Amino acid sequence: MSQFIVGLTGGIGSGKTAVSDSFAELGIDIVDADLVSRIVVEPGTPALAAIAEHFGSDILTQDGQLDRAQLRAIIFKDPEAKHWLEALLHPLIAEEIQRQLHSISSPYGIFVSPLLIEAGQRLFCDRVLVVDVPESTQVERTMARDSNDREQVERIIASQINRQDRRAAADDILDNSQDLSTLKDRVAALHVQYLELAKEKVG
């Protein structure tokens, strides 16, 4: 396991994937909580069987995958359903995250999670990097990407930690309100900083 882990977080539509992709281009291993959350509910897993039993087989697509958009719509309207789902999945996700973090071989690792702060996952990290954009940008980007209506996007944003608290929890803040070229330059500067911090920790 790499000795130094940077936790990368930000609200929905802030551009976490663009940032993590930029770090990956620099040779840094990425562990993504969203990808992990998909692994634990792949067809054939006990978790997916439990979800289908609880919510009904309509929660599955024709090819047996989890219909994530439908599940998201249910849990944002029903707090009890959200609580049940989290109780099932969070321990499985935490276990898989730790397994992947221990497999990191680059000088430092990036752990990407939208719930890094809320779910206590910062305990996995030495440093927290927050990708930050104005809320209006979050709404526009998410509506364009996911074809969700404004009301649902705003509900998702309201369910996440607020922007001020997220910024307050950060060691580093990356403004992603400009173009991709600017973003890559900012990531490159952070990369140099993190290489030094990783060396110091090992030393």
TrEMBL record:
Catalytic EC class: transferase
GO biological process: coenzyme A biosynthetic process
Residues the record lists as binding ATP: 13-18
Listed PROSITE patterns: DPCK
Entry EC no(s): 2.7.1.24
One GO cellular component term noted in the UniProt record for this chain: cytoplasm
Location(s), subcellular: Cytoplasm
MF GO annotations: ATP binding; dephospho-CoA kinase activity
Pathway stated in the Swiss-Prot or TrEMBL entry: Cofactor biosynthesis; coenzyme A biosynthesis; CoA from (R)-pantothenate: step 5/5
Keyword terms: ATP-binding, Coenzyme A biosynthesis, Cytoplasm, Kinase, Nucleotide-binding, Transferase
Keyword Nucleotide-binding: yes
Domain of life: Bacteria
Reactions performed catalytically: 3'-dephospho-CoA + ATP = ADP + CoA + H(+)
Family of the protein in this entry: Belongs to the CoaE family.
PANTHER family, sorted: BIFUNCTIONAL COENZYME A SYNTHASE-RELATED, DEPHOSPHO-COA KINASE-RELATED
Known function: Catalyzes the phosphorylation of the 3'-hydroxyl group of dephosphocoenzyme A to form coenzyme A.
Record's protein name: Dephospho-CoA kinase
Organism listed in the record: Spongiibacter nanhainus
Lineage: Bacteria, Pseudomonadati, Pseudomonadota, Gammaproteobacteria, Cellvibrionales
Gene this protein is translated from: coaE
